[in-house]
Amino acid sequence: MIQELSHMDRITQLQDEIQQLLTIMSSSIAYLTSRANFVQVSEEVPITKQRNPDKFDPPDVFEGKFANKKELVTDLAVKAKQVEYLIQSLPEPEPCRAVVVVSSPARSLGWS
């Protein structure tokens, strides 16, 4: 019983960590879509939109000395490693045993 509770604690902890991972991902996407400027990723696809300079973070904040992008990536990677560790610490699943419940009509027919 105590071991089962320990497994449930790990599952609850894993659930919490996954929720935090999703929060980090959601916050990162929100930041990137609201505070990053548009850049051209291919010569074939032009930039069709520009943000006002006060609406996006300058390069030194995003990639330079303040490195918001690096912080976002680090937070995401650390949380993903924590989730991976918790998954690895879960016990191996026990082999399934088929449970057959025979109803009374089946018994009367001799199927039990």
If you had to describe this structure to a student in words, what would you say it looks like?
- By secondary structure, the protein is mostly helical.
- It is 58% helix and 0% strand.
- It has helices spanning 2-35, 59-62, 68-89, 104-108.
- Helix 1 packs antiparallel against helix 3 (68-89).
- The two termini are 33 Å apart.
Whole-Å distance between the termini? 33 Å
How would you sum up the major sheet?
Answer: none
| Average pLDDT reading | 79
Label the structural class: mainly alpha
Shape assignment: elongated
Low-confidence stretches: none
Radius of gyration: 26 Å
Question: In which range does the helix fraction lie?
Answer: 55-70%
Note the run of SSEs as H and E: HHHH
Q: How many individual β-strands? A: 0
The fraction of residues in strands falls at under 5%
Question: What's the helix count?
Answer: 4
